[in-house]
Amino acid sequence: MSLQGSRGRWSVVLLSVPIAWWLFADTFRRYVPAESGTDTLRFSYWGSIDDKQMWDEIIDRFEAAEPNWKIHGEWLPLYGYATKLDQQFVAEGAPDIILFQDEPFPQRAGEQFADLDEFLANDSTSQRLLEDCWPTARASFLHNGSLRGFPIMGGNVLIFCNLDAFDRAAKARGEAIDLPANDWTLDDFVELAIKLTVDLDGDGRTDQFGFMQPQWVYYLPFIWSHGATLLDESLTRWTFTGPEAIASLSMFADLRHRWHVTPLPSEYAGQNFDTAFLSGRVAMCINGPWFEQFLMQTGLKLRHCVAPIPRGPGGSATRVTWDALCVYSKSSARKREAAWRFLKTAMSDGAQAAIARRLRAVPARMTAAERFVLAGGGPGSPAAMFVDAMSSGRMQPITEHWETMSRPIARHVTSLLFDGPARRTPEQVVEALRTDVDIQRCFGK
């Protein structure tokens, strides 16, 4: 063999080593303990880089207290997260600890998530932590009466107001435009949205809209305000019928067609839900505390406020949603016990403070709410409004059929916004939902 050939082969070998390490180091770290006597727990979660930093901080807390355990984080984007987990469930290779949302929870809880009551039974500290959680947080992760997920964080939805957009509309109309009152009504909401919808340059085209048309699940609080419900209290019977249901959908359609206070897709082309509000293209939108985290990093940091859900015949209630940490039922007994201790770490004072500090979500523990309020500006701030609104927090009608139910609701409700012959009336949509094959199969005729 020539010297040149020998050098060439060694060059390939030397080049291959770093490439192989780059490709497979993550796998190596997962399955080979970093130190003698340590073991690894896999932890699956989603979120932004800020979320990753938050979980890294919580992981560091756990590893400092548990020197024989390491946490391997499997960080994924939210879109595609459920699909990845489904694949892992089928292969019986899901992570030991799983961050999970309340909406798909009932469908997976019985088979995939361990019963946590066995750990709670003789653990007074954990019982205290759970009792400190918001009632809706605790209730969201019960399956047949047993706890299958430890609530960690969540939030409700309120009306965000862009104060710059309010000022522009007031100047264009030559009149003062007041911010929403805490006891405002559905009629007040419509009147304000109309005032905030203006042609700023006089060219005959609307430049600023009063409200961003929400998706159906964000419109759910307005449905409740009208006195309508989707399911009965047992979550087994379809109840979205009658004049209350029709009235709620009439308002949804009228926002677009009658009052035109929400933009058509062509009227905010190139912008999404968030940037339309940020740019002032729309003056109000409905969103949760996760939006507050985003706004605090923009020019609207001090130029926005939030308002309660408008009150109607059915009162005023905000939609509340929660995320929990679950333990994979097919992990070994030793790993399930260690995973449970990680859940306790995530519910500790320090970890809940880390969640509160980032304004990512409202901490699941009520005693951590004060830290969330202080991080968001103190009493009177949007963060304080979100915490105060927890008293009117209402759980979504989540069942094992949530995904099957959500798809036809979204499809039929969206037909209210169409132009031309494809548009349906509120009465037609209510009837289409009542007779929908999937709705009937899940909740009876």
Description:
The structure is a single chain. By secondary structure, the protein is of the alpha/beta class. Helix content is 47%, strand content 15%. The strands form 3 sheets. Strands 1, 2, 3, 6, 11, 12 and 13 form a 7-stranded mixed β-sheet that branches. A 4-stranded mixed β-sheet has the order 8-9-7-10. It is globular. About 4% of the residues have low confidence.
- The global form is globular
Question: Which structural class matches the secondary elements?
Answer: alpha/beta
Terminus-to-terminus distance: 82 Å
β-strand amount: 5-15%
Would you count the extended β strands for me? 13
Number of helices, where a helix is a run of at least 4 consecutive DSSP H or I residues: 20
Helix content estimate? 40-55%
The value of Rg in angstroms is: 25 Å
| Largest sheet: number of strands, sense, barrel closure | 7 strands, mixed
Mean pLDDT across all residues, rounded? 91
* Spans where pLDDT lies below 50 across 5 or more residues: 17-36
Write the layout of secondary structure elements.
Elements: H1 3-31, E1 39-46, H2 49-65, E2 69-76, H3 81-90, E3 97-101, H4 105-112, H5 117-120, H6 124-131, H7 135-140, E4 142-143, E5 146-147, E6 150-156, E7 158-162, H8 163-173, H9 186-196, E8 209-211, H10 216-225, H11 242-256, H12 273-278, E9 282-287, H13 289-295, E10 304-307, E11 318-327, H14 333-346, H15 349-357, E12 362-363, H16 369-375, H17 382-388, E13 393-395, H18 402-414, H19 426-434, H20 437-443
Parallel strand pairs: 1-2, 1-3, 8-9, 11-13
Antiparallel strand pairs: 3-11, 4-5, 6-11, 6-12, 7-9, 7-10
Helix pairs in contact: 2-14, 2-15, 10-11, 11-19, 15-16, 16-17, 18-19
